[in-house]
UniProtKB/TrEMBL annotation:
Keywords: 4Fe-4S, Heme, Iron, Iron-sulfur, Metal-binding, Oxidoreductase
Protein name from the UniProt record: Ferredoxin--nitrite reductase
InterPro entries to which the protein is assigned, alphabetical: NIR_SIR_4Fe-4S, NiRdtase/SiRdtase_haem-b_fer, Nit/Sulf_reduc_fer-like_dom_sf, NO2/SO3_Rdtase_4Fe4S_dom, NO2/SO3_Rdtase_4Fe4S_sf, NO2/SO3_Rdtase_FeS/sirohaem_BS
Organism of origin: Haloterrigena salifodinae
Domain Nitrite/sulphite reductase 4Fe-4S as annotated: residue spans: 139-293, 405-549
Amino acid sequence: MVHKKEEQKADCYGDEVREHIERFAANGGFEAIPDDEVDTWTTRFKFWGVFQQRSGQEEYFMMRLTNASGILEPGQLRRIGEVAKEYAKGPVENPEFGNGWIDLTTRQSVQLHWLKLEDVPEIWEQLEEVGVHSRSAGGDTMRNISGCPLHGKAEEFVEVGPLLERFEEDLRKDDALANMPRKFNISASGCTVGCAQDSLNDIGFEPATKEVDGEEVRGFNVCIGGGLGGRQPRAATPLDVFVRPENAYEVGRGFVELYHDYGNRQNRSKNRARFFAEDWGMEKIRETLQEEYVDFEMLRAGEDFREEYTYNAGRPVEEGQHDHVGVGDQTDGRNYVGLSVPVGRLPAEDAIELADLADEYGSGEVRLTRRQNPVIVDVADEDLEDLLAEPLLSEYPAEPSPFERGAMACTGTEFCSIALTETKGRMARMLRWFNKNVDLPEDVGKIKMHYSGCTADCGQAMTADIGLQGMRARKDGEMVEAFDIGVGGGVGEDPSFIDWIQQRVPADEAPGAIRNLLEAYAAHRSDGQTFREWVEATGEEQLIEFCEPEETDFKAPYMGDAKQSWYPFAESESAAAAAGDGAVAPSDD
């Protein structure tokens, strides 16, 4: 028997959903949806990036945009900021971020909150006028294509732009493949630092070489079945296939079609591509691709560059790029400048000012990274000093603190129905508290701290130096927000996921636990040892002892149950409250 969501999608999904959204919008917005059809229609809306916010906010929606590999062309960021300023305002201000802002995502795109359904068609019109859209940004479909954010600008081993563009134009826009068994993530890297994090995607293309007929050929090795969430993370497995750049699209499309045709549509907790890959195995998938979906003879894998990967790999800074923050060289002699936006949230006015700076000092183009940060590109040497001196860059610096540089956070209970804890506001305050209360050795340039509000792990806690995952716990007889704390995650040559060393730590004791752990790292590390290297060299029992929960002077207005927070919230418990007893929350739909 198929899952009920498959029945909901069967009658209407993909491109045709848009006309229904427009009809509801014209007839009163959310109130126009019949009460007994709300679940069905909001499930369908997700294909167009329109997500109903959590209980207590039912008449408001989030819109996720899509821009392949993080490219925002001149004028696009400004228009997104203008739309946010006009439409993305809620009934109350966030005490940390105010009202009217954009969220940068871990898939190199943007989310807008507090939208009314009746405004969605006008928002689409304004965004699409400059080439920004929300099609296929959510739901059971191919999500935003992820790639090297600086492709075409920084050094590449294989030119990846044409492949990314074809995935966007020919594959994601094919309505015949809109209704997938679950969400599906595609990535491709052309560089040798691994910044697209292909190992976390359902299918990833990694730069490689192979000798073919006595000639060394540049192309891609293919890996499949990567993903996070549900406490069941899995690094993508090499498919043992090498493809030339001109054949990569056919293999990517072939695996999408294979999963579309054979993927599990019954059990939504077990139907991501990573479970499909485990069930079928690489040999069967490779043989089926060759026999049913690919017209050329696929070659066995070539030699990859994973041993050179440094992006979020836990290596010392001097070994190579671990993110795209700071000033870097472009191949045309100009510069890019990556800014740090802790937890990825930008007030609308700041987004517009950032667009102005990109126009003034660069080409107007802005690139977004998988670490929730923006990059201004095409900055001439003679303009670099003036750009770095701009007041906005003191707020979002190119040389941030080690804590701010590595910070990421998901949406959390502020809007998400499956989250257990508030995330972005608390993380922003914790970063400031760590800056004041934790001293690190001068050579430690980064501590990658990721925070997810539940086990879906949209904040990628599993790949952090220090991963935080939202839970609930009892303290002094009351239910409070809490963290599980894990250490030692990262991608790179050998992806590893965090080991949990503390669980159900009350929110007011977690900053003290993390401070104690970091002070132990500073005191006991070897010269030049990164946090991930130190964790690997330190026994689990010792790490647990170092990470001792402790009450401190850290304060936030949302230390207890989420229902005591500032934003509108229904009296009933969240849909994810059951996860407090150890159940696994579903991954983002």
